[in-house]
Amino acid sequence: MSNEVMTCEFCGEATSTDSVSLAIWSAQGLVLVEDIPAQVCSDCDEQFYDEATQTRLRSLATGGFSSRRKVRELTVPVFSLNEEEAPAKDEAAAASVSQEAERQIA
Fold it and tell me: What CATH number does the domain located at 1-71 have?
């Protein structure tokens, strides 16, 4: 992607060249793609990709995510906006972690 400054199609502000990440839902679950060259709006943070990058992303997403190309794995916390369910899940998860820690100590 060139370092050429472009104007954001949505808000009209200038963009700058940056490296971004993109989360994609696939048959294998949630996948994170990093190190994507993009033009990013300085105001609304909209991301724009050149044709070559779009083609590579489309190819990766439609061709499946080979474990041979995996760089690393992340474990991410999951939050709920349903406040009635959130504490129960958090308490169960904490109890599970606590039990696992106790097993490792014993």
Answer: 3.10.20.860
3-class secondary structure, 19: strand
Residue whose C-alpha is closest to residue 66's, from 19, 22, 25, 31: 31
Q: Which residue has the higher pLDDT, 86 or 42?
A: 42
Contact 47, 40 (CB under 8 A): yes
Q: What letters, b where the CB count within 10 A reaches 16 and e where it falls short, cover 52-61?
A: eeeeeeeebe
Prediction pTM value: 0.69
What are the residue boundaries of the structural domains of the chain, listed by start? 1-71, 76-106
Q: Which of 3, 74, 84 is nearest to 39 (CA)?
A: 3
In this structure, of 22-26, 38-42, 83-87, the range with the lowest mean pLDDT score is: 83-87
